[in-house]
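quick one, 509 residues, struct below
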Amino acid sequence: MDVHPETSADGSPRRDAPGDPKLQPEPPAGKLPVVFDPDLCEREAIHIPGAIQPHGALLATRPSGWRITHCSANLAEILGRTPHSVLGTHLASIVGPAAQGSLRDLRPYAKMSLGRLAADAVPGSAVPRRTLQLSAFHSGDRVCIDFEPVRLDAGQQPPEDLLRSVLDSFKSATSQDSLCALAVAGLQTISGYDRVMAYRFDRTGPGSVVAEAHAPHLESWLGRRYPASDIPAQARRQYMLQRVGAVADSRYEPVPLLTGRRLEDATPLDLTYSALRSVSPVHREFMCNMGTAASLTVGLSHGPDLWGLLICHHAAPRVAGPDLRAAADLIGQVVSLLLGSLNEAESFAARNASQTTLHDITERLSRPEALAEALGHAHTALLRLVGATGVAVRIGGVCRCYGQTPGPVVAADIVTVLQAVPRTGNDLIAVDGLSRLDPKFASFAAIASGALLLTLDAAAEDVILWLRPERSRTTTWGGNPDAHGSLDRETGRITPRTSFAAWIQSIAG
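---
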């Protein structure tokens, strides 16, 4: 039977097909020859790469007849059977009747372990004795099977022996940050990777390292932020569907998927759930630029959203086998559940503190005294309510100031300027830089830069004005956040950024 690389839906060769100039051996300069267009990153179809990583093999079949329709080009190396001898044959001749029969219970959007297979027990196999771990998943109307050689270094403690103590340690977490610190320490103990980080996404897309465990010789990346383009939207979606992903060697040569010409239907295999899925060539070069040879990544979810990631980096190639990935997956599930409960606990504590403060204010206002005097006596609680350093209360045309303020006259000017700001329908107006509204307030930035205005009456005469001083915020980025890539003027190719050195950004407001 003739075999050829899997093709795209339009019939063109897959990106990772043999002969593609982007995947030839590395040039002398050490760069991986990858074409990179930042504007197209989020549209890259990373779930249908047409190739796998070389440390395992893959077969695909249709349940209608269980004939093998696709296989990876390295099948002989892993399983001892050539693609030519396998394509079109019955799946049971490779995995056995029992394993094939169990595939009837395979659910969509799920993976199933088929246990282990001795490669030399496969009829016609030409490899020495080797044990393979098999796992199956759906890809459209096909069923795919990953074949991974079982690896256990001499003296290595299996992950499950360490997992219980790591999970038990999570009981001591009192906040999301402390939970992340325990998670990275535990995952590093289990995995042995050089660096393990907890990475949290912001609402706007960028993220930051909120916890880290690393080898003593490595520089700390704790607190560093990275732009949203470092982890594009489709990569984030991938970690919601398949929680764990791994790259064994960032300089690997992708292994194309093959199919017999008479078996081909021009529909590429969806490898979303494959542990062997070949990752984007841009991502591989990105890893090389970071000095990372191997990675293991675990998605952390909060409800329907991706909260963040547990990211493991290693300087040398390293295969994350099924047992390690299963342990990492369980850690990810438990951490995700606890993140939600700890977030609720932190929110409850904040609400409880606010309610206590409001009770103090209400109790003061219930006393038989004028409103202005009551609010003045409650000024400490008013400051605590919003975390302000100064407050001005204007009742009946009289302005009284408490804490750090620029005085009644300037406070009245601030109220006038804020009341001219367009409202969104409520009685609160908030700004984080008064000098941007009126330059005359710049000289008061040390005590009044941020402001919150609450109107107490329909005529907008009675108000409470809270003030905060200007605060300089310093952000340490992992490289210039605006430097997404570089252009090779000779070839016209753009490659991912190469510098991840600390890049300091200061913002006042």
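The chain is about 30% helix and 25% strand.
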